[in-house]
Specification:
Radius of gyration: 24 Å
CATH architecture of the largest domain: Orthogonal Bundle
Oligomer: single chain
Strand content: under 5%
CATH superfamily of the largest domain: MetI-like
Distance between the termini: 8 Å
CATH topology of the largest domain: MetI-like fold
Shape: globular
Number of helices: 13
CATH class of the largest domain: Mainly Alpha
Number of domains: 2
Number of strands: 0
Length: about 300
């Protein structure tokens, strides 16, 4: 097991390094001049040259990369081309909002999907199981931003129970988080419900469950006691993919609810061609996805004894 973890850690570090290279290079080959965007089309050639010298955009690409990645390793993401402010404090502030939304949405998705998916599998072939399966299929077809707008129309505009958007840290933070969390979590719950259902149905046909039933356990008791842990292995993969999807989906939902998270920050940075801010945000999102995949692999090792023996 320690050797497997060392291999996973090595893969993790290599993936982060390659990802940082790709993010840096891909953003550099995009058309457009950051100096012209920052100073405007009326800027003189001398002003543009002075700006490029200040931010080092005329240096060789390898030198720019080393300067940027060295700063990232020290916690310094550089200075925004547009606001002239340090990127790191804004990045940390916005990341706290997005991570809270994603974490709560994933909790909501798991709380809904695990019992509903298991129930649908246990009631397979019956009306109640079919209803749950049909409702989850409808949920999969609905985009999160549409769910968000529907929630705003009902709970913020019609009933006036919750704010329609914005963000405020403090005792009222959950009031501002409820609708965006439901918009993100409900769609992910529908997707996860179907995967849980499929995993449980597959486990129900395994020989070890038939053996457990032959020893006197009911079908449901055998499934709960021996089957759910085995069904959780393929579901873990889906949870990891969904967490990555939530990070991307938060970009749209944050705009719908006017939430100052990483998604809004990324959209604004792209619109302003704030190159340094864009590559820092994208690197942070890539790092989050790689960390999620690493943790899923570690969880595999903890849950599946076959990997530990290997």
């Amino acid at each position: 097991m320690p050797l497997r973890l060392l291999k996973l850690a090595g893969t993790f570090l290599a993936t982060v390094w390659v990802s940082s290279l790709l993010v840096f290079v891909l953003l550099r080959v995009m058309p457009g001049d950051p100096a012209t965007v920052a100073l405007g089309t009326d800027a003189t050639a001398e002003q543009l040259d002075a700006w490029r010298a200040q931010y080092g955009t005329t240096a060789p690409l390898w030198e720019q990369y080393l300067q940027w990645i060295g700063g990232v390793l020290r916690g310094d993401f550089g200075t925004s081309y547009v606001t002239q402010a340090a990127i790191a404090p804004t990045l940390i502030e916005r990341a706290q909002v997005t991570l809270l939304l994603v974490a709560l949405a994933m909790v909501v998705a798991l709380i809904v999907a695990v019992p509903l998916g298991t129930f649908s599998a246990m009631r397979h072939g019956k009306a109640s199981g079919g209803v749950v399966s049909a409702l989850s299929q409808i949920g999969v077809a609905l985009p999160s931003f549409l769910v968000g707008m529907l929630l705003i129309a009902v709970f913020a505009i019609h009933l006036r129970w919750l704010p329609s958007g914005g963000w405020r840290w403090g005792p009222d933070v959950l009031r501002y988080a409820v609708l965006p969390v439901l918009a993100l979590g409900s769609v992910q719950a529908s997707i996860l419900t179907r995967y849980v259902r499929s995993a449980v149905l597959e486990i129900k046909a395994e020989d070890f469950l038939r053996t457990a039933r032959s020893k006197g356990l009911t079908a449901n008791a055998a499934l709960i006691r021996h089957g759910l842990k085995n069904a959780s292995v393929p579901v873990l993969t889906v949870v990891g993919v969904q967490l990555a999807g939530l990070l991307v989906g938060a970009v749209v939902v944050e705009r719908v609810f006017a939430i100052p998270g990483l998604g809004s920050y990324l959209v604004d940075a792209v619109a302003n061609r704030d190159l340094l801010a864009v590559q820092s945000i994208v690197l942070l999102l890539v790092l989050a996805v790689v960390v999620i995949n690493f943790l899923v692999d570690v969880a595999y090792t903890s849950i599946d004894p076959r990997l530990r023996r290997a």
